[in-house]
Design brief:
four-stranded mixed beta sheet; single chain; globular; binds octanoyl-coenzyme A; 11 helices
Length: 258
């Protein structure tokens, strides 16, 4: 892979977008690499994924403006469709995904971070949707996901104005889950990922499934899904071990995902 680095340690994956000379701007090759890698990760037994950008300056500074500038409408639509597939693959991964946001998360970079379950930000993080200032709209699902994350009025304001949101404001409006010093970003992201990875994998994936179902399903359908998945937990060895350990006043043995 030319633009991605991927490592796995103790069932926690770290995917680094690696094009720091262009502030990790997303081009077609990178989108194709992400599509392939995310499909592989979806079928793996990874317990948590961290997504970040190489260098100290940017998570991802958006889609590649140089590549987009001469698109005709159908090329632009295809570029948007391929990018949207990446966002859907990321969002649809069965395991939690943490965006470790270092510096700029602009345009497509903000949209990428919004497709993750959790955003931990360095204190130098800056989010924005600059697209209308470039004559386009956020075409990677950014408006949809920003509405769901910070509410309709705030999302509209940010997309209409292109205003930059710094880390502390991102935390205050629920765009960021946590703000940490830039130097300890990866350490803090890893700490959270390891905490997630230590829990029963079926339970963690079940939480993601039912939490995401809350977006599209009416409450009674979502709770019915929850009931079904709750039952399925009782077919796992991890549930037997977790409950036995509680009653025997001991720590559970490491969860196996079985
Ligand atoms: N695309 C291409 N190259 C970029 C991008 C980008 N989005 N962002 C930065 N770069 C490049 C610069 O051109 C520069 O390259 P070079 O050294 O060859 O001149 C290098 O990265 C470093 O950038 P700067 O010199 O500009 O660094 P500064 O510290 O001065 O500024 C900024 C940093 C503020 C982040 C500035 O680079 C910037 O404003 N970048 C563009 C941000 C932006 O507008 N992003 C949104 C792009 S549009 C988008 O993402 C749409 C997604 C939906 C697509 C739907 C499909 C149609």
């Amino acid at each position: 892979m030319q633009y991605l680095e991927y490592t796995v340690e103790n069932a926690v994956g770290t995917l680094t977008i690696n094009r720091p000379q262009a502030l990790n701007a997303l081009n077609s090759e990178m989108v194709a690499e992400l599509t392939t890698l995310l499909k592989e990760i979806a079928g793996s037994n990874l317990r948590c994924l961290i997504l970040t950008g190489a260098g100290e300056k940017a998570f991802v500074a958006g889609a590649d403006i140089g590549e987009m500038k001469d698109f005709n409408p159908s090329e632009a639509e295809a570029f948007s469709a391929e990018g949207n597939l990446v966002m859907e693959l990321l969002e649809g991964l069965p395991m939690p995904v943490i965006a470790a946001v270092n510096g700029f998360a602009l345009g497509g970079g903000c949209e990428l971070a919004l497709s993750c379950d959790i955003r931990i930000c360095a204190d130098n993080a800056v989010f924005a949707l600059p697209e209308v200032g470039l004559g386009i709209l956020p075409g990677y699902g950014g408006v949809q996901r920003l509405v769901r994350t910070v509410g309709l009025a705030r999302a509209k304001e940010l997309a209409y104005t292109t205003r930059k949101v710094k880390a502390e404001e991102a935390l205050a409006i629920g765009l960021a889950n946590q703000v940490v010093p830039a130097a300890s970003l990866m350490e803090k992201a890893l700490e959270m990922a390891q905490k997630i990875a230590a829990n029963a994998p079926f339970g963690v994936r079940a939480v993601k499934q039912v939490a995401d179902a809350s977006v599209g399903l009416p409450l009674n359908k979502a709770t019915r899904l929850e009931t079904k998945v709750f039952g399925q937990c009782f077919a796992t060895q991890d549930q037997k071990e977790g409950m036995a350990a509680f009653l025997e006043k001991r720590k559970p043995a490491p969860y196996t995902g079985k």
